[in-house]
What we know:
About 70% of the residues lie in helices and about 0% in strands. The chain has helices at about 5-20, 25-35, 40-85, 115-130, 135-155, 160-185. It has one domain. It has six helices and no strands. The model has no long low-confidence stretch (mean pLDDT about 95). The radius of gyration is 17 Å and the shape is elongated. Pfam families: PAP2.
Amino acid sequence: MPDFLLNLDRHLFYFLNHDLSNVFFDWIMPILREPKTWIPLYVFIIAFCLWKYKKKGLVIILLLIASVGVADFTSGVLMKHNIQRLRPCRDPIVSATDISRVPCGSGYSLPSTHATDHFAIAMFLCFVFGRKWKWIWLLGILWAASICFAQVYVGVHFPIDVLCGAIYGGLVGWLFSLLFKKLQPSF
């Protein structure tokens, strides 16, 4: 990564991790980034799709699961192990000032798999349901972006990690939505 971009990333990390520090964020951000927090939402999405769309709903759910699976595997296994960027809490320059609000985590940082997975979910659902419900775009992007912000705020990712994860996850979600439209052109 070019030095100017690396320095910009570190400065932005410091701003988000330190300068925005407050009691409310210290409480809510670890909760937002915790996957178990979102289990009720995932159950609702599955139940809603199956109830409202029956067989098409099953196709939606299967492709949504496939998009997250592909996004998770390719970002978490293939990309991270080839890029090998250290997390802020393990970076020799940043770790001295990093405020770690959750355990550091093992493995590498780029791309953020949380960002990849949640943007894959958000973009898949936005592209599938966006024509019917325009508001889903705002909700989906805000939801996934809040998880990305939380990853930086708690100290486990740099901003570029979550940006790359968001872009890649969004691309995966969009590609799987195209597959859905091929399989269900009347939807």
